[in-house]
Amino acid sequence: MSPQMSENLATSSQAGTAAKMPESWIIALLGEGRIGKTVLRVRFVLQLFIEDYDDTYDTETGYRRQFAVDDRMCEVIFIDLDGQFEERAALRDNWIRAGQGFVLMYSITSRESFDAVRASCQSVQRIKGENPIMMLVGTKYDKSFERTVSTEEGVALAKELGCEFFETSAKTGQNVERAMKSLVQSLREARTPASTPGPGSVGERKKKKSRCIIL
Ligand SMILES: Nc1nc2c(ncn2[C@@H]2O[C@H](COP(=O)(O)OP(=O)(O)OP(=O)(O)O)[C@@H](O)[C@H]2O)c(=O)[nH]1
Ligand SMILES: [Mg+2]
């Protein structure tokens, strides 16, 4: 995702909020390289799994989707930071600033990516305050034969971070819709009555009791 596209999305989100779409949420996908951030986004937005998805030519449409949560329409707009940008701290911090909901991601086949989650969480907390709206997601659930991080470890980390936890597969679609729906529900719950939906409008909230959904 280019910085220009990120800016366009944030701006059009603000415009969309005031005009046609009653709700619009900016969701940042954070995590190490090659853990499946982009294919999860593509699975959710385009409802496809493309194994070696090349996002070089992605247009804005590949980053946003309107869907109903509890019978109310909303739009989610993704900030999809690739592994390299994770290392470019200033850029990453700007995008975190623009985000409202945060998906802290690791692959169940990569211990290293799991160990990196706390650092992502700290970056978000440093910028957004102590209790941002976060979710922990373990990707590549269909590759359980290569699993190196147990479900119990994911559950324990989610409990420590005070957020919900899902194990997902972009390949089969498992839990992808449920995770996004749940994140929107958390964003709605956290919205303070005085605020209007838009970048930076989600206030701090009490730590959520963690819930784990695997199935
Ligand atoms: N089987 C399977 N493969 C997956 C899944 N998620 C991602 N992959 C594969 O993992 C590889 C990396 O996926 P990407 O979505 O490009 O990873 P990324 O986190 O966006 O990587 P960067 O943009 O480099 O940070 C690709 O070959 C995907 O097909 C999954 O749920 N199941
Ligand atoms: Mg990517």
TrEMBL record:
Gene3D superfamilies: P-loop containing nucleotide triphosphate hydrolases (3.40.50.300). InterPro entries: P-loop_NTPase, Small_GTP-bd, Small_GTPase, Small_GTPase_Ras-type. One of its GO terms (molecular function) is GTP binding. Residues 188-209 are annotated as: Disordered. It comes from the Eukaryota. One of its GO terms (biological process) is signal transduction. This is Ras protein. It is found in: Cell membrane. The keyword Zinc does not apply. SMART domains: RAB, RAS, RHO. Its main location: membrane. It comes from Mycena maculata. It is a lipid-anchor. One of its GO terms (cellular component) is plasma membrane. Keywords: GTP-binding, Nucleotide-binding. It holds the Pfam family Ras. SUPFAM superfamilies: P-loop containing nucleoside triphosphate hydrolases.
